[in-house]
Amino acid sequence: MALWARQASRWRCLLKAARAAEFPGRLRGSSTSTAQACLGLAPRALPPFPSDVLPWRLQACRHVSVGSCSPPDSAKDGSFSSPESTLPSPVKQEQAKAETLPDLNPKTLYEDWDDIPPSSALEEISEEEAVQIIAEPLLPLRSSTLRDYVDHSETLAKLVHLGVDLSQVEKRQKAGQLLLTLDFEKDIRKILLFLKDVGVEDNQLGPFLTKNPYILGEDLEALETRVAYLKSKKFGKAEIAQMVSRAPYLLLFSVERLDNRLGFFKNELGLSVKKTKDLVIRLPRLLTGKLEPVKENLQVCQIELGFQRNEIQQIVFKTPKILTASKKRLRQTFDYLHNIMGIPHHMLTHFPQVFNSKLLRIKERHMFLTFLGRAQYDPAQPSYISLDQLVSLPDEVFCTEIAKASIQDFEKFLKTL
C-alpha cells in the first residue's frame, strides 16, 4: 500500500510541474523546484504492479489531470490512506494558490473581450439608468439669433471673448451665416494679426469686427494689396491706422474703387493732392459712403446757398462733414444765419463750423443777445461777437464773458420762449 501511495504522489508532482509551467514569475519558479524535488524521490525503474492495482492508478491520474484532488471511490471506505495526505503542507499551499489565480495570458483576455457583444440602441435599460442619461441639446436648423449657436461654436465663443457684439452682427445681411462657416484658427486668426499689423488696437478689435464682420471672409492677399496702395499714395502708417479704425469698411474696397474716390474729390473740389489726402484722413468715410449725397450737397451749397467755388473749397476743407450733412439742415441753418442774423457769405466761409452746431442753440443765444442789446456780429463794430464765440463756448462762459449776464438770467429767459 505504501508503494502505491508513493507512485500516486509521484504522478501528482509531475502534473503539478506541468501546470506550473503555465504561470509566469514566482509561481513558475516555485512549482518547478517542487516538481524537481518530487522527481528526485521517484525511482528510475518501477516494479510491476498487480493487475488489480493498475486500474486504480490510471483512475487517480485521470482525476488529477482534470484538477480534482479527491481520491478514488475505493479509497473512501478507509481501506487505504489518500495520496494527497502524504504531500507536505507547502505543496498543498502552492497547489491552492495555483488553483485560485486567474489566467493572465493577454491573448486569452483579448479573446474574452472580443466575445462581449456591442451594446445596442434597442437594448432595454432600467429607469434609474434612463434618468442618469444627459442628452446634448440639438443645434437648431434655423434661428434668427446667433445666441443659439454660441455654446456649440468655438469661433463664436472666441469672437465674443474679443468683444464682438453678436446681437449687432446678426442684424447685418448674411453676416451670421458667414461667421458660422468660418474656422477661428484657419480663417480668423490671420485676419486679426493683419489688423493688428495695420494699427488697430487690441481693445478696438471687437468694435471693429462688430461694425464690419465681412472682413473676416476677405482674402488676406487682397487686403494687403489695398494697404500697399494707400502707402503708395503717401499715407503714413499712423494715418492708415486712423482711417481703417474710423472707417471699418475701407479695406473692403478694391484698389480701383479707392483710386476713383480719391480722384473724384480731387477733381470735383479742385483740391491739391495734399489737401485731398488731408480731407480723407479727417473724414475717411468719404471713401466708403455713397457719392450721390456728396454731389447733392455740393449743388445745394453752390446753387441754393450761393457760395462760390473757391468758398466751397474752403468750407469743405475746414468742415468735411458738410458733404454728408442733411440738406434740410443745411438750408435751415444757412437761412437763419444769413437772413435772420445777417451773417454774410465770407464770414460763414471763414467759420463754417457753425453749420455743425444745433440750430436751437444758435437761436437761443442769438435771441438772448438781442434781448440784452449785444447781438453784434460785424467785426468793424465795437462789442463784436464772432461765430466761434457764439456757438463753441459752454453756457456759463458764454453768459459771463459774452452776454455779461448770469446763468440764472439766461435760464429765466429761456423759460419765456
Largest sheet: none
Structural class: mainly alpha
Number of strands: 0
Radius of gyration, in angstroms, nearest whole number: 50 Å
List the uncertain runs. Answer: 1-5, 23-92, 94-101
Strand percentage: under 5%
CA-based shape: elongated
Oligomer: single chain
Keywords: Mitochondrion, Transcription, Transcription regulation, Transit peptide
InterPro entries: MTERF, MTERF_sf
Main location: mitochondrion
GO cellular component, one term: mitochondrion
What does the model show?
- With 417 residues, the protein is mostly helical.
- Among the domains are: 290-350, no CATH class; 357-416, no CATH class.
- It contains 23 helices and no strands.
- The protein has helices at 2-20, 26-41, 54-65, 89-100, 106-114, 127-132, 154-162, 166-169, 175-181, 184-198, 205-211, 220-232, 237-246, 255-269, 273-282, 292-304, 309-318, 327-340, 345-350, 359-372, 387-392, 395-402, 407-415.
- Helix 1 runs antiparallel to helix 2.
- The longest helix has 19 residues, at 2-20.
- The protein is elongated and about 135 Å long.
Top keywords for this entry?
23 helices, elongated, 417 residues
Outline the fold blueprint.
Layout: H1 2-20, H2 26-41, H3 54-65, H4 89-100, H5 106-114, H6 127-132, H7 154-162, H8 166-169, H9 175-181, H10 184-198, H11 205-211, H12 220-232, H13 237-246, H14 255-269, H15 273-282, H16 292-304, H17 309-318, H18 327-340, H19 345-350, H20 359-372, H21 387-392, H22 395-402, H23 407-415
Protein name: Transcription termination factor 3, mitochondrial
Family: Belongs to the mTERF family.
Subcellular location: Mitochondrion
